[in-house]
Each structure stands twice: as C-alpha cells, then as structure tokens.
Amino acid sequence: MTDKDQWRAGEDDGDEGDTSVVVKTRSRTKRPPLYKVLLLNDDYTPMEFVVAVLERFFGMNHAQAFEVMLTVHKKGVAVVGVFSHEIAETKVAQVMDFARRYQHPLQCTMEKE
Ligand code: TYC
User: What is the pLDDT, as a whole number, of residue 109?
Assistant: First the structure.
C-alpha cells in the first residue's frame, strides 16, 4: 500500500469518520423465583395422615416427616419445601387433592420466598 492509498475517501483508516459504535450490554441472568410450600395446622386431620403426606409428596423419611408434622402441630405452620413455581403448584394441588379424597381439612399453600 502506498502512503496515498491510506487517505482515500470512504476507507476506514480507524482514525476518523467511523460512525458505528458497538455497545455490549452485560446480560444479567436472573434465577427464577422460588416458592415456599407451607403446611397449616388444623384440629381434625390425623397426625399419621400428615406424616403420610410428607413422606409421599415431599420425600421425607418417617422420622423427618414426624418431626415436621409436630412442628406444624405446635407452631401452626411450617415450610415443607422450596420449589420453582410450577413444582410448588403441583405439590399444593397433590396435597389438597389427597386431603379432599380422605375428607380431611388439611390446608397447603405456597408463597414467594
Ligand atoms: N393438629 C392435628 C391433630 O392434633 C395434627 C396436624 C398436624 C394437622 C399438622 C395438620 O398440618 C397439620 N390431629
């Protein structure tokens, strides 16, 4: 390339006349929100039924399930798991259906963490 070739109009010499700007925005990857599934106490649902619910739908062993059931019994409410929105919704529906099937007033809800 001769010296003159560098100054030709329309050619980007990297020094001037370059109007394009590349802007990189850092993409922030958000984790999906999590939801607590809560079990509520009542006076009528049998303790063993609650234990069975915790074993069946929340993968607890008998000792864990018994302990969590007692916590709900004494404190009125306990978090029994934390899940994505879809999984939490499914757990709540499974517990509510199971309780209804056996005509127990057991209540299960979810709330954003
Ligand atoms: N309170 C109930 C009883 O005395 C037992 C119970 C525990 C019910 C936990 C609901 O989420 C519950 N039979």
Answer: 99
